[in-house]
Amino acid sequence: MSLRLSTLPNGLRVVTEHMPGLLSASVGVWVCAGGRHEKAEQNGVAHFLEHMAFKGTRKRNARRIAEEIEDVGGYINAYTSREMTAYYARVLTADVGLAMDVIADIVLNPVFNSKDIEVERHVILQEIGQALDTPDDIIFDWLHEVSYPDQPFGRTILGPEERVANFSRADLKGFVRAHYGPDKMIVSAAGGVDHDQLVALATEIFGGLKPAGNGLIAPAAFSGGERREIKDLEQVHFALNFEAPGYRDADVYTAQVYATAMGGGMSSRLFQKIREERGLCYSIFAQSGAYEDTGQITVYAGTSIDEIAALTELSVVEIKRAADDMTEAEVSRARAQLKAGLVMGLESPSNRAERNARLLSIWGRVPDVAEAVQKIDDVTATGVRDYAARLTSAQTAVALYGPVGKAPGLEEIRQGLAA
Predict the structure, then answer these.
(1) pTM for this one?
(2) Which of 91, 224, 312, 356 sees the fewest Cβ atoms within 10 Å?
């Protein structure tokens, strides 16, 4: 693998990773602007803007955008997260220039036609409705909101219906002016890609743009809380959140190993104790999520109204017990799972391009994969037990959805952790 980084005079960064033997490449533009960059009255506009990029530009209508990429056998897509918006394509190596031209066009030249805005508004409202009808999807939005209340980082990416229903062309253009400058963009590509060719293309396309400026974002502050939504469902959906390290925290790898050991697979503690031994649920897992300046350890399960109290109590018991008896075998298995997941995932050029853009936005450099593997290997059983002990007094949040009348609340959970 050969990773190279160049920065244009206006701040645009171009990062490539050549992957020998590949005849295709993933290429895209990652904009360092997402949900957490929105003001309260803008909540959902970053996601709306991502949708509108595919509706037409000064050179291409929506059909032509799709056809130009699919005519050469490629695909194009986009996503919005809390910290970034990405526009990317996967094509054969010979078509990288075409993909870069199409992506740059939809990012820099959207027309925001009034009719298209109304069509896409309806699509997004349908997307919001679908999320509300998917309990094991919407519960994580609610959990995030109560973990980071009354701040940009805690708001949903889709935005509330009442905001989306009223966004105008001016709202979209205003967000672009504020955040879509070259100093907030990263052109990232991986696979069969030539760095010098991509830098030349980026210079031609983006070189004349003026920087947007260094807009500050509000730091994320995990304070925790509880949300209970009563609905006549078959199951109670339960999601528990703990404050955890962000990417810049040295403990981020310890948190990942801990979460994997607790609920990262069928051999994990929560799965074995709660599903296999007690049969209290069909689905249960734990995961670690990291952002630029914060992170979360999340436990999720779905169970019946009669089992939710027992499931919650046993989850708390296992979370506490990990501080005393997490074994070297469990930690070794979790390390192996994390390393394998990392390495296997990076056999995809799309995943590599995304990783390089993401880490470059946080650290200003792209750590080698071997560096990440070594940091995972450096996590010890003692370190995981120490982390588990600290977690029992960390800030906590809980979200419950369904027939939640018998479900223990946040105070009961906190008391159980402190006992």
Answers:
(1) 0.94
(2) 224
Q: Which of 17, 38, 41, 50 is catalytic?
A: 50
State the amino acid at position 34 in one-letter form.
Answer: G
The β-bridge relationship of strands 185-191 and 13-18 is parallel
- Determine the 3-state secondary structure of 75 from DSSP: strand
**pLDDT of residue 1 exceeding 80:** no
Total length of the chain = 419
Query: Where do the DSSP E strands lie in 102-256?
Result: 185-191, 226-230, 236-244
pLDDT (0 to 100) of residue 301: 97
Cα 275 from Cα 266, distance rounded (Å): 9
Q: Cβ distance 109 to 101 under 8 Å?
A: no
> What is the rounded distance in angstroms from the CA atom of residue 2 to the CA atom of residue 129?
44
> What band does 212 get if pLDDT is binned at 50, 70 and 90?
confident
Cα distances from 415 to residues 35, 238, 271, 301, 317, in angstroms, run: 33, 18, 23, 20, 12
Q: 273-296 b/e with 16+ CB inside 10 Å = b?
A: bbbeeeebbeebbbebbbbbbbbb
3-class DSSP state for residue 262?
Answer: helix
Q: How far apart are CA 269 and CA 258, in angstroms?
A: 11
Q: Which residues pair with 283 in a beta bridge?
A: 302
Contact indicator for 259, 286 with CB cutoff of 8 Å: yes
Residue closest to 280 by CA, chosen among 317, 332, 243:
317
Residue 334, token pair as written in the block: 């979790």
Tokens 């990405």 belong to: 86
Q: What is the pLDDT of residues 108-163, one digit of tens each?
A: 999 999 999 999 999 999 999 999 999 989 999 999 999 999 999 999 999 999 99
Cα separation, 307 vs 235, in Å, equals 10
Catalytic annotation present for 50: yes
What is the rounded CA–CA span in Å between residue 353 and residue 88?
9
